[in-house]
Amino acid sequence: MNEWTLFVGRFHPLLVHLPIGFLVLAALFEVVSSWRQSSARSADNGSAPGTPWREAAAAALVAGTACAVAAVATGYLLGHAGGYGGATFDRHQFFGIVTAAAAVATTLVRTIAMLRAPANRPQMAIYRVCLAILMLLVGVTGHLGGTLTHGEGYLSDHAPGFVRSALTRAGILDASASATARLGDQAVVYTAVVEPILRADCIQCHRGEVGSGGLTLDTPAGIRKGGDHGAAVVPGRALSSEIIRRIWLAADDKRAMPPRGRPAMRPSDATILRWWIDQGAPFDKRIADLDVPDEMRPMLEGAVGPLRRGGPRMPTATLGPLDPAAVRAVERAGLSVIRLDDKSSFVEVNAANAGASFSDQSLAALRGIAPHVVWLDLSGTATTDEAAGAIAGLSNLTRLHLNRTRMGDAGLARLGSLQQLEYLNLYGTRVTDAGLQHLAGLRKLKRLYVWQTAVTPAGVERLHAGLPGLQVDTGSKPDSAGTGQ
Amino acid sequence: MSDLDDLKFNCSRRHFLSSASLGIGAFGLASLLDPGLVSATGTATLPTADGPLLSSPHFVPRVRRVIYLFQSGGPSQLELFDYKPLLRTMNGQQLPESVRMGQRLTGMTAFQRSFPLAGAQFEFARHGKSGAYVSELLPHTAKIVDELCIVKAMHTEAINHDPAVTFFQTGSQQAGRPAIGAWLSYGIGSENHNLPSFIVLLSRAREGDQPLYSWLWGSGFLPSQHQGVQFRGGKDPVLYLTDPDGVTRTTRRRMLDTLRELEDHEHARVMDPEINARVAQYEMAYRMQTAVPQVMDLSEEPDATFELYGPDARKPGTYAANCLLARRLAERNVRFIQLYHQGWDQHGNLPQDIQTMTKSVDQASAALVLDLKQRGLLEDTLVIWGGEFGRTNYSQGKLTKDNYGRDHHPRCFSIWMAGGGVKKGFSFGETDDFGYNIVRDGVHVHDFQATLMYLLGIDHERLIFKHQGRRYRLTDVEGKVVKDLLA
Predict the structure, then answer these.
(1) How far apart are CA A352 and CA A264, in angstroms?
(2) What is the pLDDT of residue B19?
């Protein structure tokens, strides 16, 4: 019997397309029919040219209703023999039954309306309202069914940015979920990855004041505390952690978790838990802070979106897309704007092609794309202290090449806002020891180049006192002749 | 539809990318053409916004440019970086079969009756904080070992020079595929629109060594403006670039503008993308007329520069002068600077000839790294030093007390890299005590290429060109990024 249930049930995905087609067709014919009637009325020739369309609508409606009932029947069998469950399934089932019922009701209303005088206005109006509602239900049920088969976000994942943001604003897309999905390395492992796993498979029982077995897993405190059987999580030692042991037990073992009757934890989720515990079970660390072996990457990327593979550090800010008009403005000023990768909207801006037309004013255009600029290369240009104002507005800048420019101490004094800056190239500029001290507030600065400047070892020493981690390159031999300017 | 319309339709579909890139790409043709468009028509500039294929690198690049110091001929790893004291203790004894394991030898020595092991006749010592072994032949390189990432277990498939160099540069032993620099020019374009993104500099320290062929910097099936441009030493670095006497800059400009109109007519008629390539090259040459003399003018370099690179740097066409030029090109954001230095093919008379070679490269190679470092350029430049294969641990020809030769050995050899994205003061891979086979962490040529592309922000599996019904890439169907080398 069970075998038959599933066999018949599996015709559901085939059958569901028929009521969708027939019912939409019925509505379409109905629209054409009434349009023809009204145009005929206005032509005032008395006959009823909409009749064949109306008959076609009736046939489509009856066929659609029959198929809808069949789809519900097979869907019920499939849903209960095929191991489906969860909120989406429940909603799909509910709306499926409602849709079939509405189709039956619509058919009845139409039949009654047709029994009366042709074109019985009030009943035909009810019928049309029913048909409109039916269309809505078909759409909702179909979408839920699609979500069940293809997964959440199948439609919206590749929608253009403005559609996504509109959907998010309308509350249809989950803002936090889509934010987590794009956080990548910057996602906090516990909140973005571990907690959702526990919530899906463990927290139904292990929560509240006294969870099952004295264990609560819904708070960091509960996880740290453990349960009646000792420490559920031993930081750094997954194989000694009770939670991993229980998850790995054979499904028919009395002590296996999740308990018998509930679906087993997905192997990838179990692997993520094991990795997280081996990494010390931290509650506040980001993925970027932990050691991610290659085989872990796909599983984590499933939860938080693409992970970056090492390489230059980028600011953590999440930015919207670049404004093409603003980019063009920068390019009109003679600067090149180069995107740094195909995921973020961070860019490098350089003046390699600006030539003689470059002046400090060229940088004013950067205001339009300021947060996107992470690398700025002005080497060999006529940049002076006057440019510092425009540069200081680039809050996400991590690399700044001012080598072989006329930048001096007055300019450096205005760069204190570059709190992300890691690399600063000042070789062949007019800076002196005095200007260097303005850099002491740049906490992230790691490398500084001051060859062929008036900077002395004493000045470097003083800066080091404030920024002990900074590497300063003063070049091989100081000489006064600049090159390549 | 008329035949002509038909042709247009086919061409525009087939060459969709080349034409589309005019509108959307910040790379390739568009990147070369656009400055010309700006000056000629005063209209649009580079639209850098979301284009398709490689309007941006795949990942944030670790380096923005590459200087590849290719040591053509196959430098002997056993005299330079791969210290094998066992060869010296077993000097003159036969290569054990347990080491050779019946593996194929090249035609040069396959019929030798005896394979006497030859120990290096040069001293090795550990250098720097990393303690890497470097031979006494490379005193300057020894001083910068803490900047180097030495790959000691490179291996290749080719056993002879031409296929081996071609394999390194194009990913295939047969000529005809695009060179690395051409792939990069095609993929991510150039940052400097006044110089080609792929420039080649040649030098040699000995006469009569293996020749080089221009397909090594060819564009293969890629549009032809991506091929490398060779700069020569001497008065005329790029042939035919200077205007003849009596032709002024204005005359040249007007000539090019008129030529362009004619080419545009032709292009509208036949839609051949090579017409665009040709116009791009004309415009590039026009811009190079001012850019090249500037970059080649060493008079602005202080004496300290020549002290650093060595006296040879004053002689155009030498390896040292090319290293200095490479630095000047790197400062101007040229994407791929390819040096070739010929003369490393020591089948015989190795102890003498290898000294000629090391003397010609050692100081300038190290100077380049130091010079880039003090200018803050080493962080986003990758310098590579290496040849097409290694040399055998046994002597080719007669082994005497102070003379021997070595045959080609593709199974293991050493190269080094320095700069952004790779580990510093790091040696990777290990060969056996005989210096014959790899013991662990071998790096295949395709792995090297994949890693090189990766450092530039490119996924080597996604930079693809469809040609004659097949999708091609630099690494063909192989290659893995060697993550252990990455900083």
Answers:
(1) 59
(2) 46
CB atoms closer than 10 angstroms to residue A220 = 16
Instruction: Tell me how far CA of residue B98 lies from CA of B101, B233, B434, in angstroms.
Output: 5, 49, 11
Report yes or no: A130 and A99 within 8 Å, Cβ to Cβ: no
The answer to whether the CB of A7 falls within 8 A of the CB of A125 is: no
Q: B178-236, pLDDT tens digit by residue?
A: 999 999 999 988 888 899 999 999 999 988 788 999 999 999 999 888 999 999 877 78
Overall fold of domain A324-473 = 3.80.10
* Preceding amide of A118 cis, omega within 30: no
CA-based end-to-end distance of chain B:
58
| A463 has pLDDT over 80 | yes
Q: Is A336 on the interface with B (CB under 8 A)?
A: yes
SS3 A105: helix
Q: What is the ipTM of this complex?
A: 0.84
Q: Are A393 and A369 in contact (CB under 8 A)?
A: no
Angstrom CA distances, B342 to B156, B210, B237, B302, B396, stand at 19, 7, 19, 28, 20
Residues contacting B13, CB < 8 A, separation 6+: none
Query: pLDDT digit string (tens) for A230-256?
Result: 889 999 899 999 999 999 888 888 888
pTM for this model (two decimals): 0.69
B91-100 average pLDDT score: 94
Distance between alpha carbon A146 and the CA centroid of its chain, in Å? 20
Q: Kindly list the domain boundaries of chain A, sorted by start residue.
A: 3-150, 181-304, 324-473
- Alpha-carbon distances, residue B119 vs A152, A242, A413, B362, B438 (angstroms): 66, 59, 61, 22, 18
Longest CA span, chain B = 81
Helix, coil or strand: residue A5: helix
Q: Which two tokens stand for residue B16?
A: 């969709």
pLDDT at B39: 34
Contact between B57 and A342 using a beta-carbon 8 Å cutoff? yes
Instruction: Kindly report, residue by residue over B317-336, the tens digit of the pLDDT.
Output: 999 999 999 999 999 999 99
Closest CA to B53 of B187, B221, B220, B181: B187
Token pair belonging to B246: 């009596």
Q: Which of B456, B335, B452, B344 is nearest to B405 (CA)?
A: B344
Q: What pLDDT does B9 receive?
A: 46
Residue A478 has pLDDT above 60, yes or no: no
> Which residues 422-441 of A are in CB contact (within 8 Å) with B?
423, 425, 427
Q: How many whole angstroms separate alpha carbon B259 and alpha carbon B240?
A: 18
* Neighbouring-strand partners of residue B406: B395
| Helices of type H across B332-400 | 350-374
End-to-end CA distance of chain A: 87
Q: Which two tokens stand for residue B374?
A: 């003090």
A479 interfaces chain B, CB cutoff of 8 Å: yes
Cβ separation of B48 and A331 shorter than 8 Å? yes
pLDDT tens profile A211-227: 788 888 988 888 988 88
Q: Residue B310 in contact with residue B55, Cβ under 8 Å?
A: no
Tell me how far CA of residue B22 lies from CA of A226, A310, B87, B181, in angstroms: 63, 33, 59, 21
Alpha helix ranges (H) inside A116-241: 121-150, 161-169, 175-183, 189, 195-201, 220-225
> Amino acid identity of B289?
Q
Mean pLDDT value of segment B293-303: 90
Best of A476, A479, A480 to substitute, by most chain B Cβ atoms within 10 angstroms, is A476
Rounded distance between C-alpha atoms, residue B59 and residue B49, angstroms: 16
The residue whose two tokens read 């559920």 is: A232
Chain B residues whose beta carbon lies within 8 Å of the beta carbon of residue A347: 48
Q: Do B58 and A342 touch (CB under 8 A)?
A: yes
| Interaxial angle between packed helices A17-43 and A51-81, expressed in degrees from 0 to 180 and rounded to the nearest 10 | 160
Cα A242 versus chain centre, distance: 33
> B375 to chain A: which residues are within 8 Å by CB?
403, 425, 427, 449, 451
